[in-house]
Automatic annotation (TrEMBL):
Organism: [Pantoea] beijingensis
Family: Belongs to the purine nucleoside phosphorylase YfiH/LACC1 family.
Alphabetical keyword list: Metal-binding, Transferase, Zinc
InterPro entries: Cu_polyphenol_OxRdtase (IPR003730), Cu_polyphenol_OxRdtase_sf (IPR038371), Cytotoxic_necrot_fac-like_cat (IPR011324)
Keyword Zinc found: yes
Catalytic activity: S-methyl-5'-thioadenosine + phosphate = 5-(methylsulfanyl)-alpha-D-ribose 1-phosphate + adenine; inosine + phosphate = alpha-D-ribose 1-phosphate + hypoxanthine; adenosine + H2O + H(+) = inosine + NH4(+); adenosine + phosphate = alpha-D-ribose 1-phosphate + adenine
Protein name: Laccase domain-containing protein
Molecular functions per Gene Ontology: copper ion binding; S-methyl-5-thioadenosine phosphorylase activity
Length: 241
């Protein structure tokens, strides 16, 4: 689709290795490809098809599946952008999964709908893009009980009392503000996807924290602490053939 990528664009080596997929985690503030289909996101479990997401933002949903070669996109700040490629049917999906959406089942809906279209869990290749990491995602202790009671989770979600140090941080990590824990949102998504039967070797994680590691103005939460502004990050995927 293009030869030059915006500075700070990130890729998943796993998705690139498939050969038939084009994808990118664009830097904050950069528009997606012109023909992209994307929805008006509401932290819901709802997923729609590409033709339903044209023109963009006309429909409420938190992910789009492409049955055609149209790029599908989602926009995020600290939430997880999840890009999925089905090796069997050559369908792709872009999913917006924050904590709320993940707990509401958006990943489950995305995988189920791809399976309705002919995928099997073993044919899915998934990249979890840049999001707020356990190094900076402070969660009030009271929220943990809610997470532990969630019927979609069979294992203990990952959190720590002691804030993990991120050796790759290029700016200060978030500072604790209350009685809290440090929560690993990308690990939660990975766990949910593996529960759905997707092999661990077919899930890739881009190890970039939007708060302390990504390019400037990537983090909604950092903006609530410092008011320096934030811009949405578009992540997109399309099939090439
Ligand atoms: Zn961080």
């Amino acid at each position: 689709m293009q030869n030059t990528w915006p500075e700070h664009t990130l890729f998943s080596p796993l998705l690139t290795s498939l050969g038939w997929v084009e994808h990118a985690f664009y830097p904050a503030g950069h528009n997606p490809p012109a023909a992209s289909a994307y929805a008006h996101q509401r932290h819901s479990p709802d997923i729609i098809l590409d033709h339903e997401a044209i023109p963009p933002k006309q429909r409420d949903a938190d992910g789009v599946i492409a049955l055609s070669d149209r790029p599908v996109a989602i926009y995020t700040a600290d939430c997880l952008p999840v890009l999925i490629a089905d090796e069997r049917q050559h369908h792709v999906a872009a999913v917006h999964a924050g904590l709320k959406g993940a707990l509401a089942g958006v990943l489950l809906t995305a995988v189920s709908r791809l399976i309705e279209q002919g995928a099997i869990p073993n044919s899915l290749y998934i990249a979890i893009g840049p999001a707020i990491g356990p190094c900076c995602y402070e969660l009030g202790s009271e929220v943990l009980g809610e997470i532990q009671r969630n019927p979609l989770l069979h294992h203990t979600p990952l959190w720590q009392r002691k804030q993990p140090v991120n050796p790759d941080a290029i700016r200060p990590q978030a500072q604790a503000t209350r009685d809290s824990v440090w929560f690993d949102l990308p690990a939660l998504a990975q766990q949910m996807l593996q529960q759905l039967g997707v092999p661990a070797t077919q899930i890739d994680r881009v190890p970039v924290c939007t708060y302390c590691t990504a390019e400037a103005n990537s983090s909604y939460r950092r903006n609530t602490h410092f008011s320096q502004g934030y811009r949405q990050r578009f992540s997109w995927i399309r099939r090439r053939d």
